[in-house]
Amino acid sequence: MNRFKIALGKEQEFIDIWKNRDTYLAEVPGFKQFHLLQGATNEEYTLFASHSIWESAEAFSNWTKSEAFRQAHANAGGSKGIYLGPPQFEGFEQVV
After folding, report:
1. For residue 84, which phi and psi values (nearest 5 degrees)?
2. Residues 6+ apart with CB under 8 A from 18
3. Which residues contact 58 (CB under 8 A, 6 or more apart)?
4. pLDDT digits (tens, 9 = 90+) for 7-61
5. Strand (E) positions, 1-96?
6. Residue 94 falls inside a structural domain
7. Which CATH number goes with the domain that contains 30?
């Protein structure tokens, strides 16, 4: 997961960016699911998480080194005023 702190009033713009971007995930070996999650809003930001599920940690790692990853993130920095800092990566593996 990547956690994003999104400026107040920019939530729908952020959602639209994710809805309309080409992710190239369907063609990546090991990809299973993707979800964009909206969390709590406080006086500074609204929290979002991009949540993806992979067959293995290796499949995820391979994706981060792929051309599909570079293409999906090519315009990631072009949205001024939406993001309050860089995304924070959190990786988890299923244990049960």
Report:
1. -100, 75
2. 36, 50
3. 30
4. 999 999 999 999 988 888 888 999 999 999 999 999 999 999 999 999 999 999 9
5. 2-7, 31-41, 45-54, 88-89
6. no
7. 3.30.70.100
Burial class (CB in 10 A: 0-12, 13-18, 19+), 43: exposed
| Residue 55 in domain | yes
Note whether residue 79 is domain-resident. Answer: yes
Distance CA 9, CA 95 (A): 38
Range of the domain at 74: 2-89
Query: Which amino acid type is present at position 73?
Result: H
Beta strands in 8-44 (DSSP E): 31-41
pLDDT per residue over 46-93, tens digit each? 999 999 999 999 999 999 998 888 887 776 666 679 999 999 999 998
Per-residue tokens: 84: 């309050």
**How many domains would you assign to the chain?**
1
